[in-house]
Amino acid sequence: TMNWKTFHRLDVINKFLNTLEYEYPSTCSVYNIATTAEGRQVKLIKISNGIVGNYGVWLDAGIHAREWIGPAVCTYVIDQIVRNYQTLPSYFKNKDWYIVPVLNPDGYEYSHTTDRMWRKNRSTHFGVPGCGVDLNRNFSLGWAPDKNQPTHANYRGPHPFSEAESIAVRDMLSSGIPFSVYISMHSFGQLIMFPYSHTRQICKNYVYLLEGSTYMSKAIYEATGMQYKVGISKDVLYGAAGTSADWAHGRGRVPYCYTIELRSYEHKFDLPEDQVKISLIYTESQKGSLSK
Ligand code: 0X9
Ligand code: ZN
Q1: Which of 24, 121, 269, 283 is the most buried (most CB within 10 A)?
Q2: Which residue intervals define the domain Peptidase M14 in the entry (predicted)?
Q3: Annotation: CATH topology of 10-291
């Protein structure tokens, strides 16, 4: 059963979603939005009060297989929203939440069973079985003609949207739902990044995106003492082409698009399980020192 003391396998996460839908049928619906190369379902939970005209908020995690803290945080967010729904402020309730805790289930399972540091999905291209595609390079905006060997960890795929998982994101974001927010959770680095990653061009909503990331960073700091840097990927991390957040903003026209790199530094992708849910007791002087 579900808790936030361990990294769960896909079947536990899917069962958690189905249980929420069963227990909270008036607010939760679970949908299959894609079938993967290995035949798994990508599951989306919609949380809504059913009011027509709500803006949509999209959250996804697990686009990269080994980044296990993403699905853990994402399921925690789902649990918090659903179980505290009645007491939430109206700006929170009057949204339609579309949350995909494990966008890359094949890769996620593979990183549990076979290769802890696996990043991509498990599709086959050019006769390389299970070579996989880096789903965060498979979106069409700025899709770059580099790193195009199927065996490369950042393989972008034979063409944009060659993968069921990225197609599902594209189609949901293009379906006419008025999404105001797109957030993709990754690890690691404690960064809140916004478009663009593939070009130096300043995106349309730059000032508001910067403001939003600053609010988030401040809220995280006040709640946990953890420091999250904010900025454009090229400045705080590196440039990347064909990412989901760039596409969501530039083509999907979602105003607030973020890629969040969760904790941490010293453990890299292998954050210890006792760090999934932290209950910190810290003093003002310890704040900040907790970031590393
Ligand atoms: O390389 C990536 O896809 C992301 N980093 S990770 O270590 N999680 O692989 C960063 C992507 C940065 N930019 C945007 N998604 N916009
Ligand atoms: Zn990632």
Answers
A1: 121
A2: 6-292
A3: Aminopeptidase (3.40.630)
